[in-house]
């Protein structure tokens, strides 16, 4: 019988030295959470065998966890493929978390105003490891969508190194944390202008710190651009980033920053004044 390892897909628990050696640690809970964390936008449907292989579990053990999570509403089965997807209880938890943070509600009216003023889609994002997660999203006027922009939603994850919100959040990390993050990053080419050299990315993050604003000029995807600014707590810590997203146009990036940057920064400051 294969050895069942802790859920390797659930970073943050199985990798914590000493956590599984304490009397209070629950391996069953860890495995259940690992099953949920195995799902991602790129693979929303997973079968029992896939989960067993991913998490180094026997098929019978994986089936037991999947069945339990499905009965509780955290997973649901797709009738056509017999595979599983995340269920509505997971979404409930996500919105509950956003609600308790307070930032979601604080930002909402300011993002609506930003989108109404400019016509472009606006977002609020937070840093989670090497990714950013969209916590708020207000869609712009029809006709301005890029195919990737249209597919994004609250809860979407994007690589921090090639997104405007991500570059803002990376730029203001403490030096040691940023060094560790960059050492672990694989700067894969995502768009025609992705920064794949770490020295170039470091220089860009230094520029972001100096000017208080970041841009994404076709770094995440072709023909997709954005401008972002930091949201700070009262202590001055950068806790989130606001951005505007727009498809490519003949207007240069510098012209877009001159025209739209002040509105993005104003919105970020307005949200910051209400963040504890």
Structural class: alpha+beta
Sheet of most strands: 6 strands, antiparallel
Number of domains: 2
Quickly name the level 1 CATH class of the largest domain. Alpha Beta
The counted number of beta strands is 8
Q: Helicity level, as a percent range?
A: 40-55%
**What is the CATH homologous superfamily assignment of the largest domain?**
GAF domain
- The CATH architecture classification of the largest domain is 2-Layer Sandwich
Estimated share of beta-strand residues: 15-25%
Commentary on this structure:
It is a single chain. With 276 residues, this protein is α+β, with helices and mostly antiparallel strands. The chain folds into 2 domains: 19-87, Arc Repressor Mutant, subunit A, CATH 1.10.10; 102-272, Beta-Lactamase. Helices cover 43% and strands 17% of the residues. The protein contains 10 helices and 8 strands. The chain has a 6-stranded antiparallel beta sheet with strand order 5-4-3-8-7-6, sandwiched between helices. Strands 1-2 form a two-stranded antiparallel ribbon. A hairpin with a 6-residue loop joins strand 1 and strand 2 (84-86). The N and C termini lie far apart (52 Å). Mean pLDDT is 87; it is low at 5-19.
Topology at a glance:
Elements: H1 27-37, H2 48-55, H3 59-71, E1 75-77, E2 84-86, H4 88-101, H5 103-118, E3 121-128, E4 131-138, H6 147-151, E5 157-159, H7 164-171, H8 175-184, H9 198-211, E6 214-217, E7 224-232, E8 238-247, H10 253-272
Antiparallel strand pairs: 1-2, 3-4, 3-8, 4-5, 6-7, 7-8
């Amino acid at each position: 019988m294969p050895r069942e390892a802790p859920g390797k897909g659930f970073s943050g628990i199985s990798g914590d030295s000493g956590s599984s050696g304490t009397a209070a640690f629950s391996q069953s809970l860890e495995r259940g959470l690992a099953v949920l964390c195995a799902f991602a936008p790129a693979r929303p449907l997973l079968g029992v065998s896939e989960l067993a292989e991913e998490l180094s579990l026997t098929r019978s053990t994986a089936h037991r966890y999947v069945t339990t999570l499905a009965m509780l509403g955290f997973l649901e089965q797709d009738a056509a493929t017999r595979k599983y997807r995340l269920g509505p209880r997971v979404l409930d938890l996500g919105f509950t978390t956003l609600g308790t943070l307070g930032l979601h509600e604080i930002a909402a009216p300011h993002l609506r105003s930003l989108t109404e003023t400019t016509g472009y889609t606006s977002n609020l994002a937070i840093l989670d490891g090497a990714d950013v997660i969209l916590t708020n999203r207000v869609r712009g006027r029809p006709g301005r969508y890029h195919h990737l922009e249209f597919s994004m939603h609250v809860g979407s994850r994007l690589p921090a190194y090639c997104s405007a919100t991500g570059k803002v959040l990376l730029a203001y990390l403490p030096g040691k944390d940023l060094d560790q993050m960059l050492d672990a990053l694989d700067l894969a080419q995502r768009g025609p202008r992705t920064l794949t050299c770490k020295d170039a990315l470091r220089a860009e993050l230094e520029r972001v710190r100096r000017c208080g604003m970041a841009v994404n000029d076709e770094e995440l995807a072709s023909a997709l651009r954005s401008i972002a600014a930091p949201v700070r707590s009262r202590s001055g810590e950068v806790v989130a980033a606001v951005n505007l997203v727009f498809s490519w146009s003949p207007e240069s990036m510098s012209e877009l920053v001159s025209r739209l940057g002040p509105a993005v920064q104003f919105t970020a400051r307005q949200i910051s004044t209400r963040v504890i």
